[in-house]
Amino acid sequence: MEIQFTTRIFKEGRAFVAHALELDVSSCGGTKHKAVSNLKEAVRLFLEEAEKMGTLEQILEEAGYRKGKKLAPPKFISVQRMTLPLPPLTHAKA
Description:
- By secondary structure, the protein is an alpha+beta fold.
- It has helices at residues 32-53, 56-62, and strands spanning 7-12, 15-20, 25-29.
- It has a domain at 7-62.
- The protein has a three-stranded antiparallel beta sheet with strand order 1-2-3, with helices on one face.
């Protein structure tokens, strides 16, 4: 069986970070390709350990996956960048 997940990739300093949105698993690397490769390995290990612990079905259900002939991921309606004003930072160092 296979699992599909959405990956968000961003840069943090000099490192690339890959994040599997549905599973909330992240990894990083010096290149975009390496970050994605490391993420695939991290997701594989995460799912293997969840299976060993007996929590895999619960994790997938909570992440929005549905069982059928195939494991169906949640369907995103939209992805948006949001902006909210922050309250004044009163504890900021001068």
